[in-house]
Design brief:
By secondary structure, the protein is mainly beta. The protein has helices spanning 6-22, 113-116, 192-198, 299-303, 307-316, 322-325; strands at 54-57, 68-70, 76-79, 84-89, 92-98, 119-124, 130-134, 138-142, 149-154, 167-172, 178-182, 203-209, 214-222, 225-230, 236-241, 246-251, 260-264, 269-276, 282-289, 330-335, 341-347, 358-362, 365-369, 376-379. It has one domain (6-42, 76-279, 290-326): Neuraminidase, CATH 2.120.10.30. The protein contains six helices and 24 strands. The chain binds 2-acetamido-2-deoxy-beta-D-glucopyranose (NAG) (2 copies). Keywords: Glycoprotein, Signal. One of its GO terms (molecular function) is hydrolase activity.
Length: 383
Amino acid sequence: MAARWVVPVAVALLALAVGLYLIPSPIDPEPYIFQGPPPLLEGPLAVNTRLQRGRRLFAGQLRGPESFTADQDGNIYTGTVDGKLWRIYQDTLTFITQMGQDIPECGSSMDYEPVCGRPHGVRLDSSGQLIVADSYFGLFRVDPQSGEKTLLLSSKQGCDGIPFGFLNGLELSRNGTIFFTDSSSRWGRRHVRYEVIETNHLGRLLAYEPQTGQVRTLLDSLYMPNGIALSPEEDFIMMSETSIGRIVRYWLKGPQAGTKEILMNNMPGYPDNIRLSDRGTFLVGITTTRFRGRIMPPFLDLIGPYPAVKRFITKLIPFSWYNMLLPKYGLVLELGPDGEVLDSLHDPNGTLTWAVSDVFQHGGQYYLGSTDLPFLPVLEHWS
Ligand SMILES: *[C@@H]1O[C@H](CO)[C@@H](O)[C@H](O)[C@H]1NC(C)=O
Ligand SMILES: *[C@@H]1O[C@H](CO)[C@@H](O)[C@H](O)[C@H]1NC(C)=O
């Protein structure tokens, strides 16, 4: 004999299922199948605690320093989650400017980013001016002393009739050309989790000429293109495609100019910025790790092939929960020019940091970026 509660519970579950089925999913995903399970953590990828040997600067003062650059005088520049640009000199922090409107709510919630701005890639040009990719507004030139901003190219204008949705990586060539990435024409920075789950390849690598104001698309249909780094001879660009854990090389010069090749696929994490070190290697910040599970494959590997499952999950899980579900594991990779892994530094429990967005070598130290953490981790040396 069925218990009295069976029917009401069944009806309630059915109503819930129908309700979930009927509410629209926020995303429109595509299937993506990884080439295989993530690589074993052995050889140069072996687990260690070398990324723990550092200190945290500006705790509570600097949140989400995403990208860095430095001038001849030892000043370091970075942008934070509240839309502000900063100059760092040793242990002092100086405010330069606000990319958007400076309202008290800036930094309190991602919902304010489209108003406050969010600087990502930062570099200095040959005349000592900052070039900044603001994720929402476009490319800017900023005077590092006065804080005066000049909009070079608005996201609204975009390129080839398609506005920019999520400006991200930036690199300057010696002749002044600004290379940059638009991670997605659909999702803005604050919806990066959706972008990663969708695997929709709506990103572009672009080049802007400040002399003429011309902008052109070098590559399109990219999977969340993110950090870029020019080779020392400027004959190629190394670029992360974050949402599928891949690094590609785009040739600027030589017989393969204008073509790309995959250098690293099926990575042990989702790559963010890539920086050239003074030893000619490429340093890659890993924003989220992708390791083999003892029982199950990584979650995104598991749901990757099934758009319906991805749609369903984004209905169920509130957007603000995604960050909490991610492991606090710090990982940075050192790659050779052909994408070979030379070394890796790990912080398996986030003692110093995790979710690394940038690895910037300066004056013998390494400044570790993040999109969200409320401090600036500095590694004393690479050892
Ligand atoms: C500047 O150099 C880059 C390669 O380093 C090249 O792609 C670009 O076309 C050059 N720009 C100009 C204006 O010559
Ligand atoms: C993290 O790992 C280090 C050893 O590398 C250990 O000393 C420390 O207690 C750990 N911290 C936590 C919170 O588990």
